[in-house]
Amino acid sequence: xxxxxxxxxxxxxxxxxxxxxxxxxxxxxxxxxxxxxxxxxxxxxxxxxxxxxxxxxxxxxxxxxxxxxxxxxxxxxxxxxxxxxxxxxxxxxxxxxxxxxxxxxxxxxxxxxxxxxxxxxxxxxxxxxxxxxxxxxxxxxxxxxxxxxxxxxxxxxxxxxxxxxxxxxxxxxxxxxxxxxxxxxxxxxxxxxxxxxxxxxxxxxxxxxxxxxxxxxxxxxxxxxxxxxxxxxxxxxxxxxxxxxxxxxxxxxxxxxxxxxxxxxxxxxxxxxxxxxxxxxxxxxxxxxxxxxxxxxxxxxxxxxxxxxxxxxxxxxxxxxxxxxxxxxxxxxxxxxxxxxxxxxxxxxxxxxxxxxxxxxxxxxxxxxxxxxxxxxxxxxxxxxxxxxxxxxxxxxxxxxxxxxxxxxxxxxxxxxxx
Length: 419
Prior knowledge:
The protein contains 13 helices and 17 strands. It is of the alpha/beta class. The chain has 3 domains: 4-108, no CATH class; 119-290, Ribonuclease H-like superfamily/Ribonuclease H (Nucleotidyltransferase, domain 5, 2-Layer Sandwich); 301-418, no CATH class. The radius of gyration is 29 Å and the shape is elongated.
């Protein structure tokens, strides 16, 4: 005779619209047993020992509701119903939850195929630490997988912040030569600022602006259902097993050169185990939205800094000069993807332009910023290293064309993020 937990699971599966044959296969019982169980009442008062076995009875409705919300931790559920008056054993609750866990694992293996050009899935993978410019930094891999062709894009970074979240999306679109209609991802703060109980999402405004610029719809996984982006998670695992193991590299740039070569010669030219086709060949039929020469989206990292009395602002561990007369003011700062630091007044007038320093505790100074200032008292030399900023005309940077936007837009975005 089946335990009440098994009987309940069989009835639960039927309510989900699952047929008798599939229920028999998932539960391990024959179809005759399934039919008998479905026809019989769940509780049989004449059974000996029933008073003990069915102590869970008053809490089943609550437990099923919590399980449907994704809570499958028996210890957590035990604490919750214990506060409601449950006096049964923890093992009885575990026996009740276990079939649901098995069902959830079986459901997670179901593949959901998408139409050409419909969806890309993105995720971050953590790959330990890297020595970057003399400092230990966390190493991340951004992975974007197209749902239909399974073509992959990978980029290693030392940050998973909002700026690199936007940049890696843009680099992925440029790599594929187009944009999918939808991008699926986790509920990361770089994308989702808040998710209400009713399911409504308060999106990060800069991510929404990127989506509007390129014409895709962002989509966040349901809480506790991250497996819905299984294609990209499989891509991260493939990256670890096929590319990362035994790898040697000099620095971040070398690592990205190697992963680009791997994408072009291994990952995207192999016969994919699920589709049975070569991702690079399928990409030509992916029907992505074309870029059509669209300028790169401005992915500058935006922030505000207050200048010091000696006409410096602090940024990422270094000090940068601004023209005399703008001391002790709140200024807008843009860090561009080309490693430039641009400093503006609150009205949007550009004050200074510096190359970002690769070190720490340095003063990057443009001598012209201090013309006309007379020091009344001698000052000791600073303990930090003084670096004279090269004139902007002396810096040769091969920068891509970037869409120009009014600074008022950045201020509005900053205001909304910090509100």
